[in-house]
Amino acid sequence: MPNVLLLTGSPRPHGSSSTLAEIVLEGMREAADIQVERVDTARLENKHRGCSSCYGCQPAKFRCMIHDATARLINRVPEFQVIVLATPIYFFNLSAQLKACTDRFMALCSYDDQGQVISPLRKIHLAAVVTSEGDAATSGLEVVQLWLKQLSDFTGTAPIPILHQGHCGRDAGPTLRDAELRTRALAFGRDLLA
Ligand SMILES: Cc1cc2nc3c(=O)[nH]c(=O)nc-3n(C[C@H](O)[C@H](O)[C@H](O)COP(=O)(O)O)c2cc1C
Asked: Is the pTM of this model over 0.90?
């Protein structure tokens, strides 16, 4: 049974990015029995606002040595087969809440004798769900796309599929009740397990 981690990046637990990601999970459930753990990164209690740059993870190899909630999560990441990153676009980028958490993925990266990156992330399927008020051309989506590409290139994961929905304002309800979007999100979820 695939173990799936949903990491949300919005401070609004029932906002558009989390809601859309939950529909993606429904699609995954149509394809397979999955076990899901959802973590709202905005609610993680942490010692620092992000990575403390202690470099304790490097000799520890794939363990974050900070004693906080994000470290406990990061140290369990290799148990998951799929990670869905859900984020609103904030000032033309992913949200700071999700970024502060994923910066700690550095603990899951090390270098071999040839200077090549080695990471347990390589075996994990990553996917992203992104919502924004603007559309694909105006929201800053391309910055998130580039970040995801660099994340996958660096860690060696497969290319990261992205489901983006624009025109999600403060009241995301009308957009998310859109039948066509629901169909697209369910298919996106099913395809992640194909
Ligand atoms: C601080 C802040 C910054 C935002 N910046 C952008 C932006 O750069 N581009 C955009 O299209 N939408 C922007 N938005 C709108 C959100 O991305 C959009 O409403 C999103 O769907 C909210 O998702 P959520 O309900 O999951 O929080 C911003 C919203 C906030 C609160």
From this structure: yes
